[in-house]
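Protocol step 4 of 6: structure prediction from sequence.
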Amino acid sequence: MTMAKPQARLTAGQKACVCNYHKKNPRIKFEQVGQWAKKKFKLQEAPDRSTIGRIIKQSSRYESLQPHETGLLKAPVIAFKPLEEAMATWILQMEHRKICLSDALIQKQALRLAKMMDIP
């Protein structure tokens, strides 16, 4: 019976660092990026080259991380970008009008906009 190799779980912030490192060193092999990540993040095992390749392929997910998202093990995926943009616009309008927003009010507006956009 073979023992499973321990996984090197990277946070979204660490994945963003991997992408930046690869962007600065585009000719370096994925295995070397994995070794760099092991050393940089003090991991027990280096991430596999396929893992590094997948992280780099999905680099757009990690380009616009907010500070509170860097510790997450998964980057947030925005399913409905138009809804998010409409909500951001609405929130900015409410702030400009100095209207205090509660969680309930924000959720109500999100549901209203989703219904208008035919989002289930």
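Step 5 (inspection) to follow. The mean pLDDT is 84.
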